[in-house]
Amino acid sequence: MLLTLNWQENDNEPQYVQLYAYLKKEIVAGRLAVNSKLPSVRKLADLLGLSTTPVEMAYQQLLAEGFIQSKPRSGYYVEKLPDPEVKPGASIQTIQRPMLRDEREYVYDFHLSRNDFSLFPTMIWRRLYNETLHIEEQENLFYGDPQGEAGLRSQIADYLRRYRGVACSPNQVVIGADQFGLLSLICLMVKPQFQRIGVENPGYLLFANTFRQHGYDVVPISLEEDGISVSELYESEVRLAAVSSAHQYPRGMIMPISKRLQLLEWAKSVGGYIIEDDYDGEFRYHGRPIPSMQGLLPHANVIYMGSFAQVLAPALGIWYMVLPESLLNMYYSLLRETLLEPSSSRLHQRTMEAFMEKGYFEKHVRKMRKLYRKKHDALLLAVHKHFGERATVIGADAGFHILLRVNSERSEEELKKLAIQAGVRASSASFTWLVPPNPLPKEFFLGFAGIPLKKIDSGIEALSQAWFGDC
């Protein structure tokens, strides 16, 4: 057997890796025939001018991967490989990655949920993070509590009690890396009892699609002027519902206390649960923040969900939910059965714990609320100035975005293209409907949190010009 290895003496790869790769290539290509015997370790070492060690290591790797077999007192032989789906040398068809998000750069980026990071306390966060890596804190590098670090859960429970009106103990707080993971836990916990869920229409599709992926039937429930229709919930006979009561997504309505109490009564009467999505409850710009529904009645059947994504930064990957006491045993059983490990970084959790404990978090919230209020008011002023009666604002006074309903003869598709051509990001809200109305209103998200304050007026002017010209 003639082996013509193109040896690279000065190559960075170890000799055994080069030999292994060469022999593997020859076997796959069929140039080393099935059942043919390879030279002994010593003979091949002499042939290549090597020690026996790299040859033995190359053979052992080929043996482990099934390319050759070892016959006692006989030697190494080439194994028969299954016919490959792709022949050696053939071009491989690669799947084109679809555009999952609009990654275009816009002159005026009214992204619906982008934060303003100009005031992020980078130096403080870096210092606190580095403290979690001190030699005496090496335990932080190991797996933490799958429910979330106890210190952070205690800080979250205290913060929610004082600022969001949530009644809970640290043992009811569950921390995760994202909303999908926490929703999936809910799906697994309550699946034995519930097979259907009612969701707001329009609403945040992550809720509907996560439950659908877990085998639930998703029932769209209409919105009324003050939030989800309670009568439809009764009629649908669902016993599980997801709502955003403090600031409905995407339409921005605030659910009054009378309807919140009706919802709580519905959950109690049907033996069900409400998932309360409090995604931006900290940001109300005129008037006091609206407290949560969870804390209105003792032992309410409410699963409360929140995060640090909008109030601080989504890259930190810290979301949380507050489980009612009636679900805790199910949750702990799920932990035991699945051997779950924490999904949210333990280092980030410990840093966030210190950030809250030392008072930096509340200070940051106040600072960001003030900045976002200025941007919110500037946006409303610009819309009134440049659109006048040609557009209507929906869902002002809270959150990161408003909806702009446009009075235009142009199609939604035309309006989208004209906005892109003008360098303005203004995303259509049509995707938020599970069951769209007919006709579908032309509504667009205008996010104000992430765009620089000085660009808001000129951006809205550019959008008005793109859609209406000098009309």
UniProtKB/TrEMBL annotation:
Signal peptide: none annotated. Pfam families: Aminotran_1_2, GntR. Its cofactor is pyridoxal 5'-phosphate. Residues 13-81 form the HTH gntR-type domain. GO terms for molecular function: DNA binding; DNA-binding transcription factor activity; pyridoxal phosphate binding; transaminase activity. InterPro entries: Aminotransferase_I/II_large, HTH_trans_reg/aminotransferase, PyrdxlP-dep_Trfase, PyrdxlP-dep_Trfase_major, Tscrpt_reg_HTH_GntR, WH-like_DNA-bd_sf, WH_DNA-bd_sf. Keywords: Aminotransferase, DNA-binding, Pyridoxal phosphate, Transcription, Transcription regulation, Transferase. SMART domains: HTH_GNTR. The keyword DNA-binding applies. It comes from the Bacteria. CDD domains: AAT_like (cd00609), WHTH_GntR (cd07377). In the C-terminal section; belongs to the class-I pyridoxal-phosphate-dependent aminotransferase family. This is Transcriptional regulator. The lineage of its organism: Bacteria, Bacillati, Bacillota, Bacilli, Bacillales.
